[in-house]
Specification:
Blueprint (H helix, E strand, L loop, with lengths): L8 E2 L5 H31 L20 H8 L8 E9 L4 E7 L7 E7 L6 H14 L10 E5 L6 E5 L6 H7 L6 H21 L11 E3 L5 E3 L5 H6 L4 E2 L5 E2 L6 H6 L4 H16 L11 H9 L2 E2 L8 H10 L10 H13 L8 H7 L1
Antiparallel strand pairs: 1-11, 2-3, 3-4, 4-6, 5-6, 7-8, 9-10
The structure holds adenine (ADE).
């Protein structure tokens, strides 16, 4: 179903006020980013640790000669007797995903999701499987899926994470089409922006940000999940091979990342704009039935997704800002977060819908 009035429009919005809002924050962001990299360089030179600065950097597990060390450093081993598997809720590339309960000594039991590594794996598969845990174990943020721990000293090998009652955001929105207020939808987008601000501050590039990789809890809190980059893309049914052999979810990916593999927090911002569109259209497929090749060509010609039905103008303008061809012109996640919080604190800013503006023209 096509919710927009036309399937593609050229960027034509007046970005004056939006650009103004971003310019001042961009300068601050630039200064902050410079201070951060200076400080990181200084502290790394001395000890490799960042004392008292509050700045933490993500460590790529691939930089460890022995990836088992990364697992030991960033994850907690769980005794399998603490885990009760209840039911199968899905299948991943490596094996089943189950729901269940975790009861750690001296703690109340909690609902968890358990990813298992199916038997018959080779060492490389075990490493790839546990790679995600050693990435997730480095994060601590209310909008990033929380790792409870791993089971590596007995079989099956498992990754245990917090349970998210409403599952993946794309299917959750499709089964609840039209059921939320604009403020609730913006609240979901705010949560994702909080998680992405944290990841970009840590120096982590997600590369596969999409509604299918966001999980939703029972209170509508959205959390970023699916870490592991190359593995994530292997696992993602949306990822297609490019001419240069990379496997990329074309509809969610920035043009420079598709064309020459330039992934960055700015390419994550492009994907965030697509997630905004997915949320405001209740899980519609971006660019509908267009082929990947047509999507690439249309974007190159300057076409962008139109506003979903009932979408506030301010949100569509933010999407268009995330989809600027020049990656340096796209907002940082902290800018996106500031902008969304202003909208939430001033709900009348969300009353002008794109459809109303089109009717006045
Ligand atoms: N599916 C995959 N991971 C999940 C989780 N953490 N909670 C609920 N469903 C999931």
């Amino acid at each position: 179903m096509c919710r927009g009035l036309s399937c593609s429009i050229e960027i034509q919005a007046d970005f004056y006020s939006l650009a103004n809002c971003f310019t001042c924050h961009r300068c601050q962001g630039y200064i902050k980013a410079r201070m951060k990299s200076e400080e990181k360089r200084r502290t790394r030179f001395h000890s490799g640790h960042v004392p008292f600065s509050g700045i933490k950097t993500y460590v790529d597990p691939d930089t460890y000669e022995d990836p088992t060390q990364a697992v030991e450093e960033f994850t907690k081993e769980i005794d399998p007797s603490c885990i009760r598997i209840e039911r199968v809720i899905g299948t991943g590339e490596f094996g089943e995903v189950c729901s269940g309960r975790l009861r750690l000594p001296g703690r109340a039991d909690i609902a968890v999701a358990i990813k298992t590594l199916k038997g018959g794996y080779v060492e490389q598969q075990r490493r790839d499987f546990l790679r995600e845990a050693s990435i997730m174990g480095q994060f601590n943020n209310p909008n990033i899926i929380r790792l409870e721990g791993v089971v590596t000293k007995s079989r099956p090998v498992m990754i245990v994470v917090e349970y998210m009652e409403n599952g993946a955001l794309d299917s959750f929105l499709r089964t609840n089409d039209g059921h939320f207020t604009v403020i609730q939808l913006v609240g979901m987008l705010r949560g994702i922006a909080v998680g992405m601000t944290y990841l970009s501050d840590m120096g982590y590039i997600h590369r596969d940000l999409a509604a299918r990789n966001i999980l939703v809890d029972g209170n509508l809190v959205c959390k970023v999940s699916d870490f592991g980059m190359s593995r994530v893309l292997e696992d993602d049914p949306e990822a297609a091979y490019t001419a240069t052999g990379g496997k990329i979810p074309i509809r969610w990916t920035a043009p420079e990342a598709i064309a020459y593999g330039k992934f960055s927090s700015a390419s994550d911002t492009w994907s965030y704009g697509i997630v905004m569109w997915e949320v405001m259209s209740y899980g519609e497929r971006p660019y509908w039935e267009m082929s990947n090749q047509d999507v690439i060509l249309s974007i190159e010609e300057g076409y962008r997704l139109p506003a979903p039905m009932g979408c506030p103008v301010a949100l569509h303008q933010l999407m268009l800002h995330c989809w600027q061809k020049e990656r340096g012109q796209r907002p940082h996640f902290s800018d996106i977060l500031t902008f969304l919080e202003k909208l939430i604190h001033n709900p009348s800013s969300l009353l002008t819908l794109v459809n109303d503006v089109q009717r006045l023209d």
